[in-house]
Design a protein that fits this description.
140 residues, mainly alpha
Amino acid sequence: MSAAAVVDVVGQGLLLVGSLLVGTAALGLVRLPDVYARTNAATKAAALGLVVVLLGGVVLAPTAGSVLTLLVAIALQLFTVPIGGFEVAQAARLSAAPVTPLTHHDDLGLPREGDQRDEEQRDGEDEGGVQVDGQERGPA
């Protein structure tokens, strides 16, 4: 097997693995129960899948221009996707999007689906964050 054939197989393998990761992220967006889990799928699996696909492109098209373009695209993905995911989760939290009962640990004390909290329970909360057990948990 020649070196060119090995490079082609590696590049195509990276494209396949990256495509599977992006497909997994898409499946997670459809199947996961709440906005927080969907955000996790969209940011982690999709970003990693796209980076692996772009690395496959670098391996298959190793010209200086394409390598530079793909490396810039990878860097932008790695810097912007986590920020976007955080902002989506923060917006969901501020709009009181419910958390699925399947989540066993909740540091923020978010309302769960089917949770019937009355006004007396909400009296200890203010605009600065969510109170859990009498303690302030994070700024808004």
